[in-house]
Structures are given as structure tokens and as C-alpha cells.
Structure to design on (833 residues):
């Protein structure tokens, strides 16, 4: 064979050997995933690859049910919200201990949340906490969370991994190495070792009994050891699941899902409560995509349905809306207005906007060819963008692609050097998604569109401060209508939660919190 | 430059010398090349591939960038194949046969450009180095430094600075060809410089430029060309490797290494997407090497007993 094929084969071989070398005793669980996080400090990472491990390492004040809407007791056994919705008083459980055996009190909770809010921490997701007045612990079992303005989603946000309770002494002792060389939380599993870009090993937290009540088993965990193993090559992850080298993988490529579904040793656990949307965003301040007609035309020219069927093997739901219509506060009146595949209308819109076909079959205006530059991650995203490129070419748009590695992409996407970018994001509600992307204060990132609309900013605040469900839904509904009208994004697909699970495991229900399908891991156990 | 009679006379030894080496061979070299069956086959294969690449727009059955709804279709000879796509389609439903033609075009172009550019600059440096003894140590130590840069690393660095594209790959490949070509050219040139006609040239008062052009270059060029032809296969391979790593052409352009890389995703389900372009790279490199070897055997004066 050629050197090319040989290197592929060798690569597969190495990856397989790596997986083979794992310990495989009965009570040791191997979870296979695609990539690592750069660190595991809960307040400082917004990466799913960080969150999914942190949910196991640490606990939050409240938990979230698999239905993605019921808040359940976790470190707090109960809570009260004042009538003005400004003061939340939590009763913190007694008898909770950190992995090093030290008891955890409301003081630790207050420390962790204040650390998240502290501007010095530079949390990328600080806005999720609302406009905080103070977070205090008047006694060992009481936590008082006071706000300046109501924040209707506060409890949802406190269930996220960013609010993980951590031990102050460990944080201070390790400094910048916290979440890199060590960790100390109260979670169902404890930090044993981390080899970046290889594996994270967690051991069971003996004596853990304070899991969120959505689980039948609130602790201790059923398995003794959890290894989060990185296998970057998608095909190798499929093979590793087929051959039983991994017990669980939430990262099976779509191409492999059906094969695994049919395999006698593997099940695919799916959930319909998943909210994760992949989209292409427009930098609306750039000439190429500054005209709403061009953005609409691009939306109309792309065949999401064909992509969902062909590129993703029918495993994903084609997206025309910016958030899933199943998410909290989605405005159903928008359903009929969404831009679906209609290349003729796209061509007509482009003509209307003055971009006419030239002799080479490309759209041109004043001597400039319509050639927006899209930046993309390599891998699956590149495949997606290439399909978009091919669809756009059919209406004469000469989209350019600049693929880059994830390590480069995050920095590049914070610049002004592109017309279109790609991103996928997990969310629990409309407010969650809209506040993240459409606030003008979030320019240049995550508002990479440079979308700056005072009316939207105001509505987002109204929605976030609303104390009634109706008011909140109305405000967010209006924002949704505006951004869809402006065609700020090109939605691609809503990603389902799919987890490949060995039949050696007991059946369990997939979670969707922040896209972390395994959540606390308390449900994971081997069948007898 | 005015052509004086002295010049015309002094040019004679060079031509005469060159003729002495190549003239008897030139009459037969191509026939002798074809007598080597492996070489003939390699040359034929290369010719076919090059013609395919050159006439890609006429030979292709589909637009190489255009996708379709039939994805991962296997080649026509397998049970699931479709007559419309002779070699099947890739993960985007693009016609592999058409992409191969355009891919070979880009791969060969990168190879030719890189070998041409690197070979030209490298040989020039090598020849000058041999011609001027004062220049020699400095230049050759610089080449040693360059030699320590792996092409792939250089390519990665250039792409980081210039962004993905064909140009940084061509530059990386050229730069990595320069030291090898320079060293070989220098070696050949030193041999030529020891010949008596060089001294004769100096004696009749030829300028350095004339000596360099007429005596040195003309006598060294054929051996250098053989070396450069041998480097071609290697350059294609490194170029494909760089593309495989995602450093080469931008999508939707087709390039053989890139096609192999994209097919890697589907290796388990549709191996032909990666295997077909890989086989083509293999065939190109093998043919180039076999043909280059044969060419050396036929043309290199030192191998002619």
C-alpha cells in the first residue's frame, strides 16, 4: 500500500493499542470521548469537555432532572424565593464532605459562587449568574443569594457545572494549577490523575450520599473507577465500542451510529430533550454578508434536510430555527416563517440585492464577486461547511473556506477577519441561548456576529428580569422574531443526544445538561 | 555582448566536450530507456496520468466541487456501484473519478513547481558555490542548516503564518529541495571545475560570467537534471503528506493527499474513498522513481562503461 494508507493504518493501530492497554476490571468504567479540556477549573471553562467531567467531580447547589425543566435538590435540600424574586435562600445539606474528608458547609458554597462571580476569575459565563448583589452564608446550613434585578433562570444556571462547589484551601494552594494538577470537590467521583489529551482517571467518592434526587441511586456511585479516555479519531471510537474496549461513548460519529445500533453488544441511548444546535453565523458588519437579503438567500440556498440525511445519516434534525422548537420559550408563531430550502427564491433575492450572475456563473456586484469567507473547525464541521459551499455554488455564491484546528479556531473566531463562522452550543432555554449570543456586550465573542441592537439588549434584560413565565416568553419571543427576521445565522441542525453503551451496562436514561449526557454518573453500573 | 572570434573559438571546447559525453548517448538514450520494460511502463503510466491531469476539464464527467445526493457510492465494478460514477462518490456525493483528475492536476502542479523552483535555486547556489571558493564554506554551511529543517515542519510553520493554501506548500517543498540540489550540483560542478578546459578558458581571458555560463553550467546541467527528476517522486509524496495533514489546497479544490485524508473518516464504511486517491499517489511516486532511475542509468556518463 501507499505511505498514505499505511499511515492511516498505523494511526488506527496505535489508537486501538492505546485503548486495548486500558485496565478492564469489572467495576472500572471506560468512557471514550473525542477531546480534552484545557483545564478543569469550573468557573473558568465553558467547554463541554470540561463540564462533563466536572459534573462527576463536583456538585452544585441544585440539580436538573432528565426532563431538562425540573430543578431537583442537590447540595441544597430546599430553597425559598422571596416575593420580589431578588433573594434566594437555600438550606444546605449537612454531612456533605469533600474528597479529602473535610466537611462542606454553606461557607464553601458561598466561596465557590463568589469566585465564579469575581471579575478576577474572568469566567466566560459570569452573565449566567444574573446581577448579583451578594452571596453569603449566615450559618453553616444557610446560603443567601441576593440579586439587584430578578433573574428568572437563576436555578437552571446554578445547576450548571460553573457553580460547582470547590474547596477554598485547595484552590488557594494550587493557584493556577487548580483543575490541572489536582482538584477537591464533593462529587460522586474524586480526581485521581489527569494526563492531558490522553485520559482523566476518577475514583469513587466513598460515603457519597447526596446525589441529586432525579437519580434512584443518590450515592455512592456504582463503579469504582471511571476513565475518560480520549480517542480523537472518530472511526476508532466506533471500533473501540464495537470491540468492547470502551463501555460508553457519547461521541460516536453519525456514520457509526447505525452500525452500533445493529451490533449485538452495543446499545444506543437517545434522548429527545437534547438542546444543542449547530449553526453558521454571519459577521453582519462585513460587506459580503451585511445585506439581510444576501443572508436570507444563503439560508434559502442551503438544503439542511439533504445534509441531515446524507452527511449525518438521518441521525440529526435539520434546523431552520436558531433554537430547538422544544426548548423553553420558543415562539411557535415563528414556525411558519422560517427560511427553508428554496434555491429559486434565493436566486431572486440575490438579483434583487444587485448581485447578478456573471459569465462565470458567479454572483457579482460592482465588479466584486460574492465570495464570503467562512472559517471552520477541521473534521466534521469542515464536511458540513463544504456541503454549504456546494449548495451556495449552485446559486452563484462563491463561498471560501478556511479550515483550522480547534486550538487556532477559538482565537480566530474572536477577530474580525471572516464573514461567516461555525459554532454549536448547548442550552436549556431560549433565554440561555439568546443572552449568550445576542447581547451587544458579548461582542466580539461569543457575539461574533457583531450584532448590536439596543432594542434587543433591552428585551433580553426584560426577559432575564421577568418574574412571570408569560412576560419572559413574550420578551424572548420578540428577540427570536427579530434575529430570525434579520437572518443573523444559518442554522444547520439540532444535534440529538446519542450515547453508545455496552450491553454489559445497566440501562439508563441520557441526560442533556450542557450536552453532558452522563451527568453525575450515579446511574452508571454494570449489569450483574 | 559582442561575439568575438576568440569567444567563438573558446566556446568550442565546451560544446565539443558536451558532445563527447552526450552525443553518442543522445542518439540512443530514449530507445535504450524503452528497452527497460519497467521504465517503459513507468513512463507510459506517468504520461497517461499527466495527460489525464492536463485534460481534466475535458475528461471529467462531473464538476469536481459539485455534490450530489448519492453519497459514498462504491466504484462501478462493485455490486452497489452506479454507472454514473465510475469510481463512486465521496462523503459529500462528489464524483471520485472527476476529483481524481483534478486532484492529480493539483498534486502534479505542486510537485513540478516545487521541484522546478527548488531545483533551479538549489542548483544555482551549488554551482556558484563550486565556482567561487570564497563563497563555498559560507553557502554550504547555510545549506547544512536548511537541511536540518524537515519539510513538514517548515510547511506547518508557513501555513501558520500565511494561512492554508497551495503557495505555502510549494514554498515549503521548494525550500526543502534547495539544500539537496545545492549539494549535488556543487559536487558535480567541482568535478567540472577540475577539467582542463576551465583553465584553458581562464587562460584565454574569459570573464567569470562567460566561464560560468558556457563552461560550467553546460557541462553540469545534464547530471543535475537527472538528480532533480529523481527528487520529483519524493516531493510529490511530501506534498501529499502536507495536504493529508490539511495544509494544502482549500476546499472544495481536489488534491490527492487531501482526498485520502477526507476518506479516512469513512475508512470503516467506504474504504474506496481513501484507497483510490492513495493508490494514485502510490502509482505516481513509483512511476516517477522508476523512470528517474532508468533515466539516470541511461544518461549519467559515469554509469556508462
Amino acid at each position: 500500500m501507499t505511505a498514505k494508507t499505511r499511515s492511516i493504518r498505523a494511526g488506527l493501530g496505535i489508537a486501538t493499542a492505546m485503548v486495548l492497554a486500558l485496565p478492564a476490571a469489572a467495576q472500572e468504567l471506560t468512557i471514550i470521548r473525542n477531546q480534552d479540556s484545557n483545564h478543569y477549573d469550573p468557573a473558568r471553562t465553558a467547554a463541554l469537555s470540561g463540564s462533563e467531567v466536572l459534573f462527576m467531580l463536583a456538585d452544585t447547589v441544585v440539580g436538573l432532572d432528565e426532563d431538562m425543566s425540573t430543578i431537583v435538590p442537590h447540595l441544597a435540600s430546599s430553597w425559598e424565593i422571596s416575593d420580589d424574586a431578588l433573594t434566594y435562600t437555600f438550606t444546605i445539606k449537612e454531612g456533605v464532605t469533600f474528597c479529602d474528608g473535610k466537611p462542606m458547609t454553606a461557607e464553601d458554597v458561598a466561596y465557590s459562587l463568589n469566585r465564579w462571580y469575581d471579575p478576577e476569575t474572568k469566567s466566560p459565563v459570569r452573565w449566567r449568574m444574573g446581577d448579583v448583589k451578594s452571596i453569603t452564608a449566615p450559618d453553616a446550613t444557610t446560603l443567601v443569594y441576593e440579586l439587584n434585578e430578578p433573574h428568572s433562570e437563576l436555578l437552571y444556571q446554578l445547576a450548571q457545572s460553573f457553580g460547582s462547589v470547590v474547596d477554598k484551601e485547595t484552590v488557594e494552594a494550587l493557584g493556577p494549577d487548580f483543575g490541572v494538577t489536582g482538584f477537591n470537590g464533593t462529587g460522586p467521583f474524586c480526581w485521581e490523575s489527569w494526563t492531558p489529551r490522553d485520559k482523566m482517571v476518577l475514583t469513587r467518592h466513598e460515603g457519597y450520599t447526596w446525589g441529586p434526587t432525579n437519580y434512584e441511586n443518590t450515592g455512592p456511585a456504582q463503579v469504582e473507577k471511571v476513565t475518560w479516555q480520549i480517542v480523537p479519531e472518530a472511526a476508532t471510537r466506533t471500533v473501540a465500542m464495537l470491540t468492547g474496549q470502551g463501555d460508553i461513548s457519547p461521541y460516536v460519529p453519525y456514520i457509526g451510529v447505525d452500525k452500533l445500533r445493529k451490533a449485538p453488544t452495543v446499545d444506543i441511548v437517545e434522548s429527545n430533550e437534547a438542546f444543542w444546535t449547530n449553526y453558521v453565523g454571519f459577521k453582519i458588519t462585513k460587506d459580503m454578508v451585511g445585506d439581510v437579503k444576501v443572508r436570507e438567500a444563503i439560508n434559502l440556498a442551503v438544503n439542511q434536510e439533504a445534509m441531515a440525511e446524507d452527511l449525518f445519516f438521518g441521525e440529526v434534525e435539520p434546523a431552520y430555527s436558531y433554537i430547538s422548537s422544544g426548548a423553553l420559550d420558543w415562539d411557535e408563531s415563528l414556525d411558519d416563517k422560517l427560511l427553508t430550502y428554496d434555491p429559486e427564491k434565493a436566486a431572486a433575492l440575490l438579483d434583487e440585492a444587485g448581485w447578478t450572475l456573471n459569465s462565470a456563473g458567479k454572483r457579482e456586484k460592482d465588479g466584486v464577486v460574492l465570495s464570503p469567507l467562512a472559517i471552520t473547525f477541521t473534521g466534521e464541521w469542515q464536511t458540513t461547511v463544504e456541503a454549504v459551499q456546494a449548495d451556495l455554488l449552485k446559486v452563484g455564491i462563491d463561498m471560501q473556506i478556511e479550515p483550522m484546528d480547534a486550538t487556532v479556531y477559538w482565537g480566530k473566531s474572536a477577530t474580525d477577519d471572516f464573514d461567516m463562522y461555525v459554532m454549536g452550543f448547548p442550552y436549556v432555554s431560549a433565554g440561555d441561548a439568546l443572552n449568550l449570543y445576542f447581547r451587544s456586550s458579548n461582542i466580539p465573542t461569543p457575539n461574533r456576529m457583531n450584532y448590536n441592537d439596543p432594542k434587543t439588549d433591552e428585551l433580553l434584560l426584560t426577559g432575564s428580569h421577568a418574574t412571570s413565565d408569560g412576560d419572559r416568553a413574550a420578551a424572548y419571543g420578540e428577540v427570536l422574531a427579530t434575529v430570525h427576521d434579520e437572518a443573523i445565522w444559518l442554522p444547520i441542525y439540532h444535534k440529538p443526544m446519542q450515547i453508545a453503551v455496552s450491553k454489559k451496562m445497566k440501562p439508563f436514561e441520557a441526560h442533556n445538561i450542557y450536552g453532558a449526557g452522563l451527568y453525575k454518573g450515579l446511574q452508571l453500573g454494570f449489569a450483574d | 555582448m559582442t561575439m568575438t572570434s576568440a569567444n567563438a573559438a573558446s566556446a568550442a571546447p565546451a560544446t565539443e566536450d558536451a558532445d563527447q559525453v552526450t552525443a553518442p548517448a543522445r542518439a540512443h538514450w530514449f530507445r535504450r530507456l524503452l528497452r527497460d520494460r519497467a521504465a517503459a511502463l513507468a513512463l507510459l503510466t506517468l504520461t497517461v496520468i499527466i495527460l489525464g491531469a492536463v485534460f481534466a476539464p475535458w475528461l471529467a464527467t462531473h464538476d469536481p466541487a459539485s455534490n450530489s445526493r448519492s453519497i459514498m457510492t462504491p466504484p462501478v465494478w462493485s455490486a452497489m456501484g452506479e454507472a454514473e460514477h465510475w469510481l463512486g462518490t465521496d462523503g459529500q456525493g462528489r464524483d471520485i473519478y472527476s476529483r481524481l483528475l483534478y486532484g492529480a492536476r493539483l498534486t502534479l502542479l505542486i510537485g513540478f513547481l516545487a521541484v522546478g523552483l527548488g531545483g533551479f535555486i538549489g542548483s544555482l547556489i551549488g554551482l556558484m558555490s563550486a565556482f567561487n571558493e570564497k563563497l563555498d564554506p559560507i553557502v554550504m554551511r547555510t545549506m547544512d542548516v536548511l537541511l536540518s529543517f524537515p519539510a513538514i515542519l517548515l510547511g506547518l510553520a508557513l501555513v501558520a503564518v500565511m494561512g492554508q493554501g497551495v503557495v505555502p506548500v510549494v514554498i515549503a517543498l521548494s525550500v526543502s529541495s534547495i539544500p539537496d540540489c545545492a549539494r549535488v550540483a556543487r559536487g558535480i560542478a567541482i568535478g567540472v571545475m577540475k577539467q582542463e578546459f576551465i583553465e584553458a578558458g581562464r587562460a584565454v581571458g574569459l570573464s567569470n560570467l562567460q566561464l560560468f555560463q558556457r563552461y560550467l553550467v553546460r557541462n553540469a546541467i545534464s547530471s543535475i537534471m537527472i538528480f532533480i527528476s529523481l527528487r520529483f517522486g519524493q516531493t510529490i509524496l511530501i506534498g501529499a503528506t502536507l495536504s493529508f495533514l490539511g495544509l494544502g489546497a482549500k476546499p472544495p479544490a481536489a488534491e490527492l493527499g487531501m482526498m485520502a485524508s477526507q476518506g479516512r473518516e469513512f475508512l470503516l464504511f467506504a474504504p474506496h474513498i481513501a484507497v483510490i486517491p492513495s493508490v494514485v499517489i502510490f502509482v505516481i511516486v513509483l512511476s516517477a522513481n522508476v523512470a528517474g532511475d532508468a533515466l539516470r542509468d541511461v544518461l549519467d556518463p559515469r554509469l556508462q562503461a
